[in-house]
Design goal:
The protein is α/β, with parallel strands linked by helices. It has two domains: 144 residues; 131 residues, no CATH class. The strands form four sheets. Strands 3-2-1-4-5 form a five-stranded parallel beta sheet, sandwiched between helices.
Length: 294
């Protein structure tokens, strides 16, 4: 998936003048994982470079200058007024009747042109207009509906939900979904978004809670596995130095007929000092399985 993003130079100039670039840079950092085409207008480009030069000692301005002047593999930057105007007109037509309600789009087929991967920097209620990294999380969640291939989807969720550490076998676990990947795709996206957003908020407000209390505070159905033998044998990840990550907390997807609901099994906060393949996972959210009822 290639994502196109319109970058209005007047808006960026205003961000620099208001010392708001710290909010903008995480968006660019997050998008490094994707094939990107950045399109800038030319109206205020001279002022933009002037402001960047004047504020060159500020780290965020230095980083944005580097972004403008260097290309990376999978990323294209263009400065073309006519092309910008044409794409902006297309964007306005696309968002005219689109829903801005992420959950309504995912669960109730509210209008959203998921095949259009065109976004813009700015501040409006439209889902495609991004003012913060959290806005980016929401629209990327919805754009995941356009991915039908399981392997591509697996790589996509790894790149989108960067606050989450996914198990190496997460793709294989999704092959065992009772209802199937295509049926559960929208729920997987929404549940991962809720885990990404809500777990850190709960931890910040209440500290580390027991799993049942943690699940009770989620906006979606979430609870720990009661059968301790299942936890020990099927829901425990072996880490380095014989350490273990218990992933008994799970969200429950919608019930379909008489089938037990598919689930996402995870650890809300990996205990301090646990490493996996040499990487310190202390405090990370660890998603172990997206799969059938265990």
């Amino acid at each position: 998936m290639t994502i196109d993003i319109l970058m209005n130079t007047q808006i960026i100039c205003e961000m620099i003048e208001k010392n708001q670039m710290e909010k903008f840079l995480p968006i660019l950092e997050h998008l490094k994982c994707f094939d990107m085409e950045y399109l800038l207008d030319e109206k205020h480009i001279a002022k933009l470079y002037e402001l960047l030069m004047h504020n060159r000692k500020k780290e965020e301005c230095k980083e944005f200058s580097i972004f403008l002047d260097r290309n990376r593999v999978g990323s294209i930057k263009r400065m073309n007024q006519n092309l910008f105007d044409a794409q902006n007109e297309r964007l306005q037509n696309v968002i005219k009747n689109e829903s801005a309600d992420m959950k309504a789009i995912l669960y109730h087929q509210a209008l959203f042109h998921r095949e259009e991967h065109l976004l813009a920097i700015g501040e409006t209620e439209a889902l495609r207009i991004i003012a913060s990294e959290e806005d980016l999380y929401r629209v990327l969640t919805v754009l995941g509906l356009d991915i039908d291939d399981l392997h591509e989807f697996t790589e996509y969720i790894r790149n989108v939900y960067q606050t989450i550490c996914f198990d190496d076998n997460i793709e294989n676990s999704m092959k065992k979904l009772t209802a199937g990947f295509m049926v559960r795709r929208h729920e997987i996206l929404y549940h991962l978004y809720c885990i990404h957003k809500e777990i850190p908020e709960i931890l910040e407000k209440h500290g580390l809670l027991a799993n049942q209390a943690m699940g009770d505070k989620m906006s979606i159905r979430c609870s720990p596995e009661r059968d301790r033998s299942i936890v020990a044998n099927l829901l425990t990840k072996e880490a380095d130095n014989n350490q273990k990550i218990k992933c008994e907390l799970h969200t429950k997807m919608e019930t379909i007929g008489s089938q037990k609901p598919d689930r996402i099994y995870f650890c809300a906060s990996v205990p301090k000092g646990i490493r996996l393949n040499g990487k310190d996972l202390s405090g990370r959210i660890y998603v172990y399985k997206i799969t059938e009822h265990t």
